[in-house]
């Protein structure tokens, strides 16, 4: 008996020490084959040497020494883009190209114990998705997004029945943004994402979605930028999606989907939390019956051809219906009922026409309110200052009149305030100086009068200040600007003058 125990202990120790010395030889060889077909300008794979592939960067192994994780997501996706010539470019002159480039060795898909595979934001040079990917039946997470694949999705993923998360988004072919001037009416932290969503381009397409039917364990499905125009020609295009009863997040933006919102199919998704179908060609009103999805917390329908009103969704936390010019939104009616969970609301470029109601302040969880280009009239209600959590308020290009509420100082969390191109009158209240969180202030193209409170220049976080095209007056000492932390200032045709109060100090 004791000999048996000694043998088992010896065998276990031998096995463990053999794994320390190296991973399974066939898996190491498969990874080296994968590396051999890639160029690696930022040396991300420099650790891929020696016998033990379990210690290589981006690789993790199971307790049995099998490769279980391959995570080669580009660590700097915001620094790398693909231009119209299908070349990797950078949006920063100082940023190195960190995208892997080349084609995928089929041997990668012999690693049949992989559970997690992420190759996102690399450049696979418009190659096709290898059919051998269907061998990875233990995959629970797969991310091939923004990796320059070009293919028609048919059955490549139908065998991956263990998948919980699948991301095939391909909104990656964009012009070089260095030649594009972004309008300063948008906060710098908001503009780039919005811009990319309008000029992105996808290479993947799917003639139908029947390949989804077997993926019953899916919780997260991202097909942003995948061309589903052929699928949406069929009235039942969403039927395969309706079988995914565990789905929590469905992202189908910029997919060329046309027709009506597939209400009956969506109602089967009783676990759905996020539904994103922006930048398509949906032509209907938003069905109020979707409110029966009590788990639904985020709804994105921007950039479609929707009409009608916004139904009441008391469970929603985020709602975006911007750029649906046929939608008519009565804010007074909308906020006659409580939206207690709502944190994000974007109704920009819809038809509002009326006023911002005082009852908006009842949505005490609101952190972002975007309503540009809605023909909003009337004044800003003083009750809006009850929104203690409000971080971003953008009401550009409306017909708002009256004065800025003196109680603006109550907006203790406000970071972005943009009221560009309205008809605001009166003085800029000095109470704005009591909002230490303010980073961006745009009051361009209004009818504001009086002096600019000099204390605004002393706000600790203010980086952007725009007050041009107003009727202000008075002199602003240059020394105040030099002591501020402002990155951009626009005073043109505002009525203000800059006074050089220290002749020995440099203008820069």
UniProtKB/TrEMBL annotation:
<keyword id="KW-0812">Transmembrane</keyword>
<keyword id="KW-0433">Leucine-rich repeat</keyword>
<feature type="domain" description="Leucine-rich repeat-containing N-terminal plant-type">
    <location>
        <begin position="25"/>
        <end position="62"/>
    </location>
</feature>
<keyword id="KW-1133">Transmembrane helix</keyword>
<dbReference type="GO" id="GO:0050832">
    <property type="term" value="P:defense response to fungus"/>
</dbReference>
<dbReference type="InterPro" id="IPR032675">
    <property type="entry name" value="LRR_dom_sf"/>
</dbReference>
<dbReference type="Pfam" id="PF08263">
    <property type="entry name" value="LRRNT_2"/>
</dbReference>
<dbReference type="InterPro" id="IPR001611">
    <property type="entry name" value="Leu-rich_rpt"/>
</dbReference>
<dbReference type="InterPro" id="IPR046956">
    <property type="entry name" value="RLP23-like"/>
</dbReference>
<protein>
    <recommendedName>
        <fullName>Leucine-rich repeat-containing N-terminal plant-type domain-containing protein</fullName>
    </recommendedName>
</protein>
<dbReference type="InterPro" id="IPR003591">
    <property type="entry name" value="Leu-rich_rpt_typical-subtyp"/>
</dbReference>
<keyword id="KW-0472">Membrane</keyword>
<keyword id="KW-0677">Repeat</keyword>
<feature type="signal peptide">
    <location>
        <begin position="1"/>
        <end position="22"/>
    </location>
</feature>
<dbReference type="Pfam" id="PF00560">
    <property type="entry name" value="LRR_1"/>
</dbReference>
<keyword id="KW-1003">Cell membrane</keyword>
<dbReference type="GO" id="GO:0005886">
    <property type="term" value="C:plasma membrane"/>
</dbReference>
<keyword id="KW-0732">Signal</keyword>
<dbReference type="InterPro" id="IPR013210">
    <property type="entry name" value="LRR_N_plant-typ"/>
</dbReference>
<keyword id="KW-0325">Glycoprotein</keyword>
<comment type="similarity">
    <text>Belongs to the RLP family.</text>
</comment>
């Amino acid at each position: 008996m004791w000999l048996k125990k000694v043998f088992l202990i010896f065998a276990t120790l031998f096995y463990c020490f053999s794994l320390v010395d190296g991973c399974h030889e066939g898996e190491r060889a498969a990874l080296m084959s994968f590396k051999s077909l890639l160029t690696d300008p930022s040396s991300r794979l420099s650790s891929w040497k020696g016998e033990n592939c379990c210690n290589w960067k981006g690789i993790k192994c199971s307790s049995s020494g099998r490769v279980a994780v391959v995570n080669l997501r580009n660590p700097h996706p915001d620094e790398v883009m693909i231009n119209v010539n299908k070349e990797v470019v950078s949006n920063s002159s100082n940023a190195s190209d960190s995208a892997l480039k080349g084609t995928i060795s089929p041997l990668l898909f012999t690693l049949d114990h992989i559970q997690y595979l992420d190759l996102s934001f690399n450049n696979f040079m418009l190659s096709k998705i290898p059919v051998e990917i269907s061998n990875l039946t233990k995959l629970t997470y797969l991310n091939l997004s923004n990796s320059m694949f070009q293919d028609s999705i048919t059955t490549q993923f139908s065998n991956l029945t263990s998948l919980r998360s699948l991301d095939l988004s391909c909104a990656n072919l964009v012009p070089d943004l260095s030649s594009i001037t972004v309008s300063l009416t948008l906060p710098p932290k908001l503009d780039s994402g919005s811009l990319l969503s309008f000029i992105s381009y996808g290479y993947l397409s799917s003639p139908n979605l029947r390949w989804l039917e077997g993926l019953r364990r899916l919780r997260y499905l991202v097909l942003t930028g995948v061309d589903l125009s052929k699928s949406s020609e069929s009235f039942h295009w969403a039927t395969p999606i309706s079988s995914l009863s565990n789905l929590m997040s469905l992202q189908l933006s910029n997919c060329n989907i046309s027709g009506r919102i597939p209400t009956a199919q969506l109602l089967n998704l009783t676990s759905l939390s996020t539904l994103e179908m922006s930048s398509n060609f949906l032509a209907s009103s938003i069905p109020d019956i979707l409110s029966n999805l009590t788990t639904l917390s985020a709804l994105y329908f921007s950039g479609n051809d929707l009409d009608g009103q916004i139904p009441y969704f008391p469970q929603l936390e985020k709602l975006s219906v911007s750029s649906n010019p046929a939608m008519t939104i009565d804010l007074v009616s909308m906020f006659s009922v409580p939206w207690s969970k709502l944190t994000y609301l974007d109704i920009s470029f819809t038809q509002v026409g009326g006023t911002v109601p005082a009852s908006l302040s009842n949505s005490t969880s609101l952190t972002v309110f975007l309503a540009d280009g809605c023909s909003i009239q009337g004044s800003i209600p003083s009750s809006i200052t009850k929104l203690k959590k409000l971080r971003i308020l953008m009401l550009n290009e409306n017909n708002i009149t009256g004065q800025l509420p003196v109680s603006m100082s109550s907006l203790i969390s406000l970071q972005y305030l943009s009221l560009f191109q309205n008809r605001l009158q009166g003085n800029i209240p000095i109470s704005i100086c009591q909002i230490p969180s303010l980073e961006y202030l745009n009051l361009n193209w209004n009818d504001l009068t009086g002096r600019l409170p000099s204390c605004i220049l002393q706000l600790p976080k203010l980086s952007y200040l725009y007050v041009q095209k107003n009727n202000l007056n008075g002199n602003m000492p240059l020394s105040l600007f030099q002591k501020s932390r402002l990155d951009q200032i626009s005073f043109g045709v505002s009525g203000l003058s800059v006074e050089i109060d220290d002749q020995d100090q440099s203008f820069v």
